[in-house]
Amino acid sequence: MIRIDIADLTIHRGGRAVVAGVTLALPSPGLVGIIGPNGAGKSTLARAMAGQPGARTGRVLVDGTDVATIAPARLAERIGYLPQTFQPHWDITARMLIALGARRAAGVPPGAVEAAIGAAGLTGKADRPWPSLSGGERAQALLAAVTVTDPPCLIADEPGASLDIRHRIALMRDLRRRGRTRLVVTVLHDLELATAFCDRLVLMEGGGVVAEGTPAEVVASGRLGEVFGTVFETAVHGGLTVARPAIGEFLCG
Ligand SMILES: Nc1ncnc2c1ncn2[C@@H]1O[C@H](COP(=O)(O)OP(=O)(O)OP(=O)(O)O)[C@@H](O)[C@H]1O
């Protein structure tokens, strides 16, 4: 189990606050989605949670300890961070990347790399040069490299961006399963999947948190349409509130 608390966090980039006075409590377990329009500060917040050093005011606490004071090796064992983009400029294969990921933590069982390759659907492709993998295959390999150690906390920035819909749904199911016993924080642009699968949502705009709670609470806040500048329709499936852009409104308008 792990707990991340963010206390009045402000991060400046390019002379302005791109994360502005954010206070959040993220207790484990659970799947938390960070949503918001482009430039809202989601990735900057996710990186700060993962311990990226840099000038800031306020604090990110991991189990009550300021993340800035935790040794990198210890942090790597506790938090797996999947960046939005990753472009190796050396010759690497998926197997090498996943094996490197496995070295972040002690006690990773023998066979974990092979199992992760299989679970990521990369059997037969794991020894190919990185550039020969498709965008979706690379995304699966990256996620496997981060989750191979089964960290108590996974922070993933748009992990499904290059996946087709079947794989995106499979990914969300996997994150939700992981979120039953771990803390999973993921930046998401697909609001339908975010509202359907996440336990909690954090809606950001202009560096601040404008709504936070269960998907039903965030939808009920009425801020989604305002923040994204679009019209949403909501549906309730089996007690879950799912929001999606009302595409029909635009086709007819
Ligand atoms: N080094 C930097 N210098 C200047 N501005 C920066 C820097 N890093 C980030 N920003 C700005 O900070 C804001 C927040 O960026 P961030 O990547 O956190 O947004 P985001 O919500 O993840 O966006 P997206 O959905 O487009 O990925 C953006 O306006 C970005 O241009």
From TrEMBL:
Organism: Phreatobacter cathodiphilus
Gene3D superfamilies cross-referenced by the UniProt entry: P-loop containing nucleotide triphosphate hydrolases (3.40.50.300)
Presence of keyword Glycosyltransferase: no
Stored SMART domains: AAA
Residue span(s) of domain ABC transporter: 4-231
Residue stretches in coiled coil: none
GO molecular function, one term: ATP binding
Protein name, entry field: ABC transporter ATP-binding protein
Highest taxon of source: Bacteria
Keywords, alphabetical: ATP-binding, Nucleotide-binding
